[in-house]
Amino acid sequence: MIKAILIFNNHGKPRLSKFYEHYSEDTEQQIIRETFHLVSKRDENVCNFLEGGMLIGGSENKLIYRHYATLYFVFCVDSSESELGILDLIQVFVETLDKCFENVCELDLIFHVDKVHNILAEMVMGGMVLETNMNEIITQVDAQNKMEKSETFIFQSPRQDR
Amino acid sequence: MSPSVRLQEMIRVIRGARTQGEERGVIQRECAAIRAQFRQADNGTRSHNLAKLLYVHMLGYPAHFGQMECVRLIASPRYNEKRVGYLGAMMLLDEKQDASLLITNSIKNDLSHSSQYVQSLALCTLACMGSAEMCRDLAPEIDRLLRASNSYIKKKAALCAVHMVRKVPELGELFTPAARSLLSEKNHGVLHGAVVLITELCERNPDTLEQFRKAVPELVLMMKGLVMSGYSPEHNVAGISDPFLQVRILRLLRILGRNNDTASDAMNDLLAQVATNTDSSKTAGSAVLYETVLTVMDIKSESGLRVLAVNILGRFLLNNDRNIRYISMTSLQKIVQTDHNAVQRHRGTIVDCLKDQDASVKRRALELSLALVSAVNIRSLMKELLLFLSSCPPELRAHTTSGIFNAAERYAPSQRWHIDTILHVLTTAGGDVRDETVPNLIQLITTATELHCYTVHKLYRALITDISVQSLVQVACWCIGEYGDLLLRGECEETEPVQVTEDDVLDALETVLQSHMSSPATRGFALTATMKLSTRITHNVDRIRSIVSIYGSCIDVELQQRAVEYNALFKKYDHMSQSYMHIVVSEEGPKNGQTPATLVMDCSLCYRTSSGTGAPSLGTRLLNSFYSQAIRLLNT
């Protein structure tokens, strides 16, 4: 099971935080800070796996991370997930973001964090991997966005009166 | 205008803040505005405000006042409001909040909505934060969706069912028939969800496991299809056809084949095929291969296949990619108990990994090395471990020392080697050892009678070099107090003897007593040792008396008590110049970290007098005084 998915930049500012187990707000922030602390210490050419910090479950859980330019993508998983599989999943996630945002960069994630959540919701659900086929994910996300746009368009005219 | 635009404005403003204080101010103003707008009637901006609140929540600011708004938005008929509402529910609500009960009805309605996207929102939220109550209520709905809907909904329903089974295990029976029928689907997403669901059901219920054993041929066929199929652009990841599904199926096969011969036989061929045909140059292939190896080792496979599997792991160990090395060590750890000899063959490579730059790889190598220690390789492996200890990262030191001690205890080839090893660890990393090390070492030294001379010489040398490591100093003081006569005699068979005078020894002990680095416990040891020496030396008894009496007015209560009692001993039994007592007092520190330190007096009193006068009654009086002291201390 995936316990949490975090995206933060090289300075530790969170760009996306999704927890699949409940923690209080303070604990969530502590987890983000601690994860950043652990991950930023790593060299460039070491392996992508870290034994988890004390907060998120101790030695049972692992942090699997990938560093792309200015962003760290970190998945905290327990022992029932395949580590190499999750590594591939991060790759699929990033490629999907790239397709959806046309050459994604950090600013896209900052200003469209809700869209990123929607894309993620098509890939991971309840801590479990849902869909890994990039095209399938993008099709669904596009359809949902279309639905949203069509709704606001219908309601556009009355609102302009206000 | 979609919700994101207003959100973007706010994000821009927040990012414009130059200091943390400014940012806090901006956010507080925004939150106040949002709160005010929540209180007003619906004005079309609710979803924007909630989106802004969620962003603020991600940055770490309190957002609990948005919970009711989530409930309201979920109940709205509009899709974009529902979407933000459900997202908010996943981020802000959990089963402990009362508000989460209020959305149960909305979810129920949305599960039968005409639009599949609304259904999917409800399923997603349910799978993330559904409480046991909600799961029980909505399970029949999920079962319906598992059977009759399109593949998009089916795959989501499957994972939702997994969450429900985790929350309420009894629901497993409800979902079993539907899960079985899902295996005949073509859509990979649905298959993936189905396999996860079946895995969860089998892990929880042995009867279900029996039932699904019959599905092994079907699963084997599915795997074969994936492995032997040509290039399929839809599911291809680095040349492997849907590695995620392959890994899941392999894991399920592992659970089904465990401890069962028929099932294991049915999958032998397949596993051999996968193991030989999978290209492991990319991560995807390695993931499948690694899962195959774990499955082979866990089921009742043929010996040829097992050998193949361990060889694959050995190949992984030598791979340049650190990820692969890490993974291979993790899997070797899982099989080291059952296939110890196979793993022993790779001991050299594993020990080399102890010197790797990467802390994660080092950690895995340490765990594996400790598991590989045996009576045969203890000497060479211990050399490597001690070398590792001198340069290991600080977070691993405590674990390494306790691992070394355990290994030494179980497989020490000789007592002298054991004592040497422990002393080496104490000098290298004495600050990171467990509390029971000191009494254990004292016990060990006591039993190694022929090594007393050797030990006391070694410890004396260590003591005069460095008194900062408390555990080492404590043991050294105890040893000198106990076997000081052997030290002063100036001869030793096992090692180069030191030529010390009584003054030198007392100097060393006094340095410990007076040093700022010594903890109160260490001072206690030093004081007792000084006292004990009074019976073993002849010329400097006065010096000892003066040292002891100084501590009669020490601030530390424990030391003061000891000093006063020892002083009393001096005064009362001064006339017994011809008699001497050997007192062995051993202290045991806190056990289990909970009970306070208890002094266990291991009173081995033996006394000799040259004259027979009053000796027995003296002995009894001494014994009584020590027993009463012991009882008094035990009662504190």
UniProtKB/TrEMBL annotation, chain A:
<protein>
    <recommendedName>
        <fullName>AP complex subunit sigma</fullName>
    </recommendedName>
</protein>
<dbReference type="InterPro" id="IPR000804">
    <property type="entry name" value="Clathrin_sm-chain_CS"/>
</dbReference>
<dbReference type="InterPro" id="IPR016635">
    <property type="entry name" value="AP_complex_ssu"/>
</dbReference>
<keyword id="KW-0968">Cytoplasmic vesicle</keyword>
<dbReference type="GO" id="GO:0030123">
    <property type="term" value="C:AP-3 adaptor complex"/>
</dbReference>
<keyword id="KW-0472">Membrane</keyword>
<dbReference type="GO" id="GO:0030659">
    <property type="term" value="C:cytoplasmic vesicle membrane"/>
</dbReference>
<keyword id="KW-0333">Golgi apparatus</keyword>
<dbReference type="InterPro" id="IPR027155">
    <property type="entry name" value="APS3"/>
</dbReference>
<keyword id="KW-0813">Transport</keyword>
<dbReference type="InterPro" id="IPR011012">
    <property type="entry name" value="Longin-like_dom_sf"/>
</dbReference>
<keyword id="KW-0653">Protein transport</keyword>
<dbReference type="InterPro" id="IPR022775">
    <property type="entry name" value="AP_mu_sigma_su"/>
</dbReference>
<dbReference type="GO" id="GO:0005794">
    <property type="term" value="C:Golgi apparatus"/>
</dbReference>
<comment type="similarity">
    <text>Belongs to the adaptor complexes small subunit family.</text>
</comment>
<feature type="domain" description="AP complex mu/sigma subunit">
    <location>
        <begin position="1"/>
        <end position="147"/>
    </location>
</feature>
<dbReference type="GO" id="GO:0006886">
    <property type="term" value="P:intracellular protein transport"/>
</dbReference>
<comment type="function">
    <text>Part of the AP-3 complex, an adaptor-related complex which is not clathrin-associated. The complex is associated with the Golgi region as well as more peripheral structures. It facilitates the budding of vesicles from the Golgi membrane and may be directly involved in trafficking to lysosomes. In concert with the BLOC-1 complex, AP-3 is required to target cargos into vesicles assembled at cell bodies for delivery into neurites and nerve terminals.</text>
</comment>
<dbReference type="GO" id="GO:0006896">
    <property type="term" value="P:Golgi to vacuole transport"/>
</dbReference>
<dbReference type="Pfam" id="PF01217">
    <property type="entry name" value="Clat_adaptor_s"/>
</dbReference>
From TrEMBL, chain B:
<protein>
    <submittedName>
        <fullName>Adaptor related protein complex 1 subunit gamma 2</fullName>
    </submittedName>
</protein>
<dbReference type="InterPro" id="IPR011989">
    <property type="entry name" value="ARM-like"/>
</dbReference>
<dbReference type="InterPro" id="IPR017107">
    <property type="entry name" value="AP1_complex_gsu"/>
</dbReference>
<feature type="domain" description="Clathrin/coatomer adaptor adaptin-like N-terminal">
    <location>
        <begin position="23"/>
        <end position="573"/>
    </location>
</feature>
<dbReference type="InterPro" id="IPR002553">
    <property type="entry name" value="Clathrin/coatomer_adapt-like_N"/>
</dbReference>
<dbReference type="GO" id="GO:0030121">
    <property type="term" value="C:AP-1 adaptor complex"/>
</dbReference>
<keyword id="KW-0653">Protein transport</keyword>
<comment type="similarity">
    <text>Belongs to the adaptor complexes large subunit family.</text>
</comment>
<dbReference type="InterPro" id="IPR050840">
    <property type="entry name" value="Adaptor_Complx_Large_Subunit"/>
</dbReference>
<dbReference type="GO" id="GO:0006886">
    <property type="term" value="P:intracellular protein transport"/>
</dbReference>
<dbReference type="Pfam" id="PF01602">
    <property type="entry name" value="Adaptin_N"/>
</dbReference>
<dbReference type="InterPro" id="IPR016024">
    <property type="entry name" value="ARM-type_fold"/>
</dbReference>
<dbReference type="GO" id="GO:0016192">
    <property type="term" value="P:vesicle-mediated transport"/>
</dbReference>
<keyword id="KW-0333">Golgi apparatus</keyword>
<keyword id="KW-0968">Cytoplasmic vesicle</keyword>
<keyword id="KW-0813">Transport</keyword>
<keyword id="KW-0472">Membrane</keyword>
